[in-house]
Write a structure and sequence with these properties.
The structure is a single chain. By secondary structure, this protein is mainly alpha-helical. It is built from six helices and three strands. Strands 1-3-2 form a three-stranded antiparallel β-sheet.
Length: 135
C-alpha cells in the first residue's frame, strides 16, 4: 500500500467540491426562480445545502463503500484507518465533518503544500490516511 501523492489528493478534493457545489446550486435553483429569492440569499442557501449534502453524502458513501468518496473513487484513492484496515463510522464522521467545513479543507491544503507529507490535518484528526489503489 502506497500513500496517495499530493496531486491526486488535491484532485479528489476538487472533484468532490465541484460535484457537491453543482448539486447545491442546482437544487437551490427553484428557490431562486419560484420564490424569487435575492441572489445573495440564493447563494447562502445553496452553500448551506452544499454543506449539508457534502457532510451526509460523504458520511454515507464513506461508510457504505468502506473508504471511498465520489472523487476518490474516480481517482483511485481509498481512505483507510491508520492500521491499514477499513475506516470506522467514527473516522468517517470526523472526515466528512472536517471536509464540510471549508476552512479545514483550506488548512489541509496549505498544510499539504507546506509540509509535503502523506497525512494532512483532516487525516490526523480522523486517524486515517489515503492510499493509492492504482500503484
Amino acid at each position: 500500500m502506497e500513500t496517495a501523492v499530493l496531486s491526486k489528493r488535491i484532485w479528489v478534493y476538487l472533484i468532490d467540491l465541484a460535484i457537491y457545489l453543482a448539486i447545491g446550486f442546482l437544487s437551490s435553483l427553484p428557490f431562486l426562480l419560484v420564490l424569487h429569492f435575492h441572489v445573495l440569499l440564493y447563494i447562502l442557501f445553496a452553500c448551506v445545502i452544499f454543506m449539508i449534502l457534502s457532510f451526509f453524502v460523504d458520511l454515507i458513501i464513506l461508510n457504505a463503500s468502506h473508504g471511498f468518496t465520489i472523487g476518490s473513487a474516480i481517482m483511485g484513492v481509498k481512505y483507510v484507518g491508520y492500521d491499514g484496515k477499513t475506516i470506522t463510522g467514527k473516522q468517517a464522521f470526523i472526515r466528512s465533518g472536517s471536509e464540510t467545513i471549508l476552512v479545514f479543507a483550506f488548512i489541509d491544503l496549505i498544510y499539504f503544500l507546506k509540509n509535503r507529507t502523506e497525512r494532512g490535518v483532516i487525516d490526523r484528526l480522523s486517524d486515517t490516511f489515503a492510499i493509492d489503489l492504482r500503484r
